[in-house]
Amino acid sequence: MSELRQEPITGNWVIIATERNKRPSDFPARHEERKGGACPFCKGNEKLTPPEITAYREAGTHPDEPGWWIRVVPNKFPALDNKSADLAGSELPGTLWVDSKHACTSEIRHNFYTSMNGTGAHEVIVESPEHDQSLEQHNPAQIQEIFRTWRDRHRALMARAPIRYVQIFKNVGAIAGASLEHPHSQVIATPLIPTVIENELAGARSFFVDRGTCPYCEMIAHEEAVGDRLIAGNQQFIAFCPYASRFPFEITILPRRHLADFSGLDDSMLQDLSAIVKVTMQKMTTSLSRPPYNLTLHTAPAGFTEAPYYHWHLEILPRLTIVAGFEWGTGIYINPTPPETAARYLRETAI
To answer: What is the DSSP code string of 311-329?
Structure first.
């Protein structure tokens, strides 16, 4: 019998369609044709991208030349950028105002509607000079360097006004939104706090006020005590399939240490993070025949970096099903694979 489950922090509901109980082999393998042609992210093609922002490279090598092992460049077609016009001085009708969520940023009320200037940043992190080296195939040191770059770019962008949030994410496969095959992740800095993060913060704070404890700390303790949704763990991190998983084989990675802000990672945490990401991704890609997926970072926005009720975390979302009319109409996702079943398959997958 199907079951409705509620996510304990946001309050969102999902349907776990237990009668379907799909196994990894029930999802069709998605093999995408290689595009071919010159790749702007491959070594030797540095001039095909905008000038690099920063890079980890060999001593004696120069910007926009070979010799790097990670490279950060502006997105050629940015969603947001720091060149957007300041609408505060425009002739558009409306009322300019600033609230606590959008400090240092002007919003414009157009009677019924509201807008804001598109100031921000959009960057690409090229994760390796090698075109076919996926995240789980890297050695742990390279994965650690990737997340070090995530941390460093997050710190740099959060220091800029009027940035309130920095979203870092990775799309793999055309179905998941990747337009280029070369391994990369993206960074978009926004002058506002996204609604998803606002909802997480509000739910976590309500839990904290009501019970006096951090809900993420409680979640870690519960998942370890129950054990049937666990995938992997080490000294500083835990990987599991969430109780109210929206998608089959959805995975959350949480730091055991109470840390709201991803920028606060130290080197020992970077090492353990790279280790658990590698083993978790190896299990997922092996079990599901290298599916398209999205990997997203959720972290505290400006003003909440010391919140006693929030943990930054990673979400890994394999794209195995299609979001259809019911989901779009209600916001309630239908998951054909119970997270307990998904976690068991992933735990038992040999790597």
So the answer is: --EEEEEE--S---HHHHH
Domain count of the fold of the chain: 2
Spatial distance between the Cα atoms of 297 and 183, rounded to a whole number of angstroms = 17
For residue 163, which of 213, 217, 118, 222 has the smallest C-alpha distance?
A: 118
DSSP 8-class letter at 228: T
Q: What band does 114 get if pLDDT is binned at 50, 70 and 90?
A: confident
- 56 and 91 in a single domain? The answer is no
310 vs 208: CA distance, rounded Å: 9
Domain hosting residue 101, numbered range: 85-118
If asked whether residues 113 and 126 sit together in one domain, one would say no
Model confidence pLDDT, tens digit, residues 193-241: 999 999 999 999 999 999 999 999 999 999 999 999 999 999 999 999 9
**Secondary structure class of 172 (helix, strand, coil):** strand
| Amino acid sitting at position 110 | H
Please answer whether residues 247 and 294 qualify as being in contact, where contact means their C-beta atoms are separated by less than 8 angstroms.
no
Tell me the per-residue pLDDT of 149-200, one tens digit each, with 9 for 90 and over: 999 999 999 999 899 999 999 999 999 999 899 999 999 999 999 999 999 9
Which spans in 31-190 are helix H? 140-158
Q: Are residues 134 and 7 in the same domain?
A: yes
Regarding whether 5 and 25 lie in a shared domain, the answer is: yes
Active site residues: 184
Domain match, 39 and 58 both: yes
